[in-house]
From TrEMBL, chain A:
PANTHER family from the UniProt entry: ER LUMEN PROTEIN RETAINING RECEPTOR
Family, as annotated: Belongs to the ERD2 family.
One annotated GO molecular function: ER retention sequence binding
InterPro entries (UniProt xref): ER_ret_rcpt
Species the sequence originates in: Tigriopus californicus
Protein location: Endoplasmic reticulum membrane
One of the protein's GO biological processes: vesicle-mediated transport
This protein's GO CC annotations: endoplasmic reticulum membrane
Entries under PROSITE patterns matching the protein: ER_LUMEN_RECEPTOR_1, ER_LUMEN_RECEPTOR_2
Protein name per Swiss-Prot or TrEMBL: ER lumen protein-retaining receptor
UniProt membrane topology term: Multi-pass membrane protein
Amino acid sequence: MNIFRLAGDLSHLAAIIILLIKIWKTRSCAGISGRSQVLFAIVFITRYLDLFTNFISAYNTAMKVFFLGSSIGTVYLMYLKFKATYDHNHDTFRIEFLLLPTALLSLVLNHEFSVMEILWTFSIYLESVAILPQLFMVSKTGEAESITSHYLFALGSYRGLYILNWIYRYYFEGFYDIIAIVAGCVQTILYCDFFYLYITKVLKGKKLQLPA
Amino acid sequence: DETEEAHDEL
């Protein structure tokens, strides 16, 4: 565990907590893509099956349980408890365009052709693009609430910090995982446009509004 | 062999 990975994990944790607080306090999931949240739940379920087969550390187990619980909880809040506030008219990204290619790619490009390994690989590929329905929704409505922007910033920073972690691990531990690295870079690149808007607008106290 | 190692990242 190095400082970049810890910072990345904490950023990921912060993103999820920000989202849950937003939904819970405002009693609304307006502006949030339920489709992205379903994809994240699939990501965690397929990646953390090793909870039952491998013990890495108490930290690792606790984080996995939290990510699983919170992602399934978010889907529950959006599709059941606060269903009336879910803005489904603007959440129209076709997720099969993400699910099918990532599923196929994980069957072809993986470390080992085994069920657990393919599901892990699928979760890595799917995570890299799972935010697209949310970004699509923001671009469709042309704006995002500040709290949604903070959520997206924390979520994007997480994989960016992981890239620093991978550079560190490559130099100091001789460890690298090419699948995670390439997918993580793709994932971070998808946020670049948003990062620019966040820094130039939201941090200056303005609402995130896309140029018309 | 990296495929034998567990994925230790989240």
